[in-house]
Amino acid sequence: MRKSWVLVVVFLWVVLTSVTALGKGTITFWLMPNAPDETHIPWLEEKAKEFEAQTGYKVNFEVIGWGEAWQKISVALASQTGPDVFQVGTTWNPQFAATGGLEKLDLAEFGGADAFMKANYISTTYKGESYGVPWFAETRCLFYNRDMFAKAGVQPPATYDELKVVGKKIVETFGEGSAIAIAGTNAWDLLHNWAIVLWAYGGDLLTPDNKQAAFNGEAGVTAMKWYASLILDGLAAKACAEYNQPQADAAFINGNVAMCFMGPWNIAGIEQENPDLPYDVVEPPAGPVKRASFSGGSNLVILKGSPNKDAAKEWIKFLLSKENLVDYTKNLSHMLPAKIEAFEDPYYDTGVWQVFKKTLGYATAYPPLAVWGDIENAVVREFRNILTAVASGHYSEETVKLYLDKAAEKVNEALARER
Amino acid sequence: MKLTFRVLLGRILFGLAVFLVLAGVLIPYLWMVSGSFKTTLEIQSADVLKPELSPRWFPRKFTWENYLRVNRTVRMLDYFRNSIIISVGTMVFSVGISLFAAYALSRFTFSWKRMYTLAVLSTQMFPGISFLIPYFMMFVLIKHYLGLPMQNTYWGMIFTYTSFALPFSILMLRNFLDSIPREIDEQAQIDGCTPSGALFRVILPLAKPGIAAVGIYSFIMAWNEVLFATVLTGRETKTVALGLLEYITAQQARWAGMMAACILVSIPVLVLFSLMQRYIIEGLVAGATKG
């Protein structure tokens, strides 16, 4: 009786080990839900098959929610097991590189640094070395409601000052809070919304050597006051002070407000939720100094401990091939390709895509620092305090400077920890 | 007359209290039901300051779409199957193991018994996150040295959750068994039962409420767990708790779809609860009044 049990266990053991041994020549790929599963998974399955036919490597892909991704990747980096190749947000790339858990890459293998949108290339670097390959990019432009603009008798604004003039006319026609929807305290990406104004006003987040906070200077204070004034002057609804980005988007898509800073992914949302919305897209307005935009998106990175680095590199090259990249960004993720050659596709010369393509051309990325997470959190925390002051009526002329200085202090503390 | 007035008042107040408690507990769920029939756009563009946009219980635009699409944005049905397998597996194993452990603790004396109980209890004192990486490394090492894959497998997850559920299950069941008089075992043995016969034929039927409570506890623990599932599951074993998170992406929050999915996946738990609730209450309070 006992003997037979032992035999069964040994048998199971052998079967299981042989099953796992078959897994050699397989790479594991983690990515985020960049598209709904119903289209995303069949696409990935098809491409994995194609890749296997070409190279003989099997690709085991796994879709990970953004909410769990940080935790899961952190464990993978600490243990050096799990995925061979995976997707990271652009601002995550330097932070993960700083842990020493990512493979250093030579971008020449992937077409050279010049083959990619500059801001996206910078996001892959840490201390001058590349630790990832840009995959797709995002940038935000100014969406406006054509009907509301026509009724108010205004044209899309070219500068931030003009935006306020246009906004006031819209408010006269449609009532308070109807001019623009902006992200508020609940937006995780709050900083992206302000950074573009800051840059346009000639300010910067950090000094050029990335050693000191610089956003609490005169340009920063003016830019922040401009942002707060959208609510204070009644161009944006008071509720905006605590919106998250999707709420601001929804207010625009629903046709309640005339303007909103949104990204290419919202276009799919409009087509699905309110296809009749008469909207158009223009570049973000210019400030007194320049026109600026933010660049985000995702990169592909390789785990340092991966036993299949060559296969992982092949997979990245495969995903970045013009055909696959265009297909993925155009039909699935509704983002922008981070590789310049993909923009040769005629699709990007049509309508709103031209605007996004142009805007991405001068987009700026955040400084690639290991402590970036702490910096962003510190600024956003005080940004939230400013918006709370606006909403609760405690806002005064000194508010902005006070909170920005506080944030700068925390940012400098964080920068001191940067090795 | 006076008495009936008092009784009436008492009943009214009691009813009111029941209503308040129920309202407090159920309103969030009703809101979830209401949200599942709205469009995401309606949920997100709600604005209390504008009457034409203020949140409402009845959807402005009623839609079944969220239910029809439940498996399309996120592979919810696959995750659902995984959750059922893992949770039922955890339930079966933790009931089985904790029954024997609790029986031993309740009926036998052995050396280090106090020490053992304390050790079991002490595992409850550590926050879960502190053994996340150790578990992960253990899985990696098991695979490395024994060739047995643990990560992204059903048995790996059942093993993990059973180990979480066991300490509380053992102690809860021990208390329950303590409340069953020892004389019953002795009588069974006088009538010719072996100790294990007494356990299975006599004690087990008497311990049903306790077993049900332990079963429900371990099922729900496994059903709701997120942190370890994040790291230890993979494409084939992902649970609903993680699937629900996938409705939120970096740029979008598909609330309406999430609400519909929440409702669909909570139905089996609700059914299980309703079937077993009689036992749970009995099981949890058993031993509480023991002198």
From TrEMBL, chain A:
CDD domains from the UniProt entry: PBP2_MalE
Keyword line: Signal, Transport
SUPFAM superfamilies: Periplasmic binding protein-like II
Nuclease recorded as keyword: no
Any one GO cellular component localisation term in the record: ATP-binding cassette (ABC) transporter complex, substrate-binding subunit-containing
InterPro entries: SBP
GO biological process: maltodextrin transmembrane transport; maltose transport
Pfam families reported in the protein's UniProt record: SBP_bac_1
A molecular function (GO) term: maltose binding
This protein's record includes keyword Transport: yes
Family: Belongs to the bacterial solute-binding protein 1 family.
Protein name as catalogued: Extracellular solute-binding protein
Source organism: Candidatus Caldatribacterium saccharofermentans
